[in-house]
Amino acid sequence: MPKVIFIERNGNRKEVQATSQQSLLQVAHANDIDMEGACEGSMACSTCHVMITDDWYAKLPKPIEAEEDMLDLTYGVSRTSRLGCQITITPELDGLTVRLPADTRNMMD
Fold this sequence. Notes:
Number of domains: 1
């Protein structure tokens, strides 16, 4: 099983086991990580925003245009920002490290 390392909002590091083909958002929810996911993964919000560490960012598939559009609305976006609902866990992503942003903006409220 691949592992994912979350750097939580408070700076704590939490390493969890993931199942291949889960989204990063699903992994977070299954492991009590504070990632909102208000739209439940339909890419209609940006509350699953994460920042990928530099070494992992280039290993991910490029975001599609719709994800980039949502990221344009995201609070605290960085050059390695992605939506957790759009990252699918594979065995090649074993050890993926992501940082949760300090805040999120729920555009659905």
